[in-house]
């Protein structure tokens, strides 16, 4: 699930938040974690405990037309309108664009985008193996790269005095961080990914509500522990 959720927003928003929030980092990152992680986990829990899915639940509790409209808008937001293009452009801007001359960036983006989405299409041709490939290959790669990024950041900027917080973070650090966490789109994506979560949990032996509650309860406990730690560090 980490490999599925980890996207462009998770890569670019936290460092930007750290730079823009300055000394208000802890309340800002607390808001970010609350919306970017907490709401996503809560949505997964609700989806995992409702085997008939969000379409049925929303149709039953509100109306069928609202369920259809909401889910269409949601899938467009986490798909072709925002999230999918962002994955390609972020990868290009971070990994490829700095290596190209300025007059080649436009053409480079076109070529990279074509290759990127052709590769994604070829991988998705075999849906049954996507989870295995993400879990066994991409997730360890993501974890290693994140660790390297953190280590390099500490080595290069660890002794740097935090810059003055921007106006929005100086005025409302927690709220600004909360909005940035929501902008990762993980809260919305978890509605779609809850189907995958249910299938994965069943494969791992979590077939009833009691076992699912126990698993997510442990994850939520760790999340609350991390949030409390952030708040205590901020207060100190």
Describe the structure.
This is Branched-chain amino acid transport system carrier protein. It is a single chain. This protein has 236 residues and is mainly alpha-helical. The chain has one domain. Helices cover 81% and strands 0% of the residues. The chain is built from twelve helices and no strands. It has helices at residues 2-5, 8-21, 25-48, 53-61, 64-81, 83-96, 105-124, 130-157, 167-171, 173-183, 186-203, 209-235. Helix 2 packs antiparallel against helix 10, helix 4 packs across helix 5 (64-81) and helix 6 packs across helix 7 (105-124). It is globular and about 55 Å long. The protein starts with a helix and ends with a helix.
On the 0 to 100 scale, the average pLDDT is 77
Number of strands: 0
Oligomer: single chain
The coarse overall form would be: globular
Annotation field: number of helices:
12
Q: What are the segments in which pLDDT stays under 50 over at least 5 consecutive residues?
A: 232-236
Question: Percent helix among the residues?
Answer: over 70%
Could you tell me the strand content as a percent range? Answer: under 5%
Strand count, sense and barrel status of the largest sheet are: none
Q: What is the H/E order? A: HHHHHHHHHHHH
Radius of gyration: 20 Å
Whole-number count of domains = 1
- Counting helices, strands and paired strands, the structural category is mainly alpha
Question: Ends: how far apart?
Answer: 34 Å
């Amino acid at each position: 699930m980490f490999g599925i959720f980890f996207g462009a927003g998770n890569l670019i928003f936290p460092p930007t938040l750290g730079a823009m929030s300055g000394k208000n980092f802890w309340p800002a990152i607390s808001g970010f974690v609350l919306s970017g992680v907490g709401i996503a986990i809560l949505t997964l829990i609700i989806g995992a405990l409702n085997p008939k899915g969000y379409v049925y639940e929303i149709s039953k509790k509100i109306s069928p037309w609202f369920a259809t409209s909401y889910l269409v808008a949601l899938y467009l937001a986490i798909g072709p309108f925002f999230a999918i293009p962002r994955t390609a452009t972020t990868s290009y801007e971070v990994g490829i664009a700095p290596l190209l001359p300025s007059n080649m960036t436009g053409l480079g983006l076109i070529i990279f985008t074509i290759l990127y989405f052709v590769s994604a299409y070829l991988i998705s041709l075999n849906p049954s193996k996507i989870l295995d490939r993400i879990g066994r290959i991409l997730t360890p790669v993501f974890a290693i790269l994140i660790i390297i990024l953190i280590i390099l950041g500490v080595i290069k900027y660890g002794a740097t005095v935090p810059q003055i917080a921007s106006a929005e973070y100086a005025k409302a650090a927690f709220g600004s961080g909360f909005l940035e966490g929501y902008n990762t789109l993980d809260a919305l994506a978890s509605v779609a990914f809850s189907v995958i979560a249910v299938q994965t949990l069943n494969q791992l032996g979590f077939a009833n509500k009691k076992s699912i509650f126990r698993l997510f309860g442990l994850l939520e406990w760790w999340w609350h522990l991390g949030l409390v730690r952030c708040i205590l560090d901020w207060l100190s």
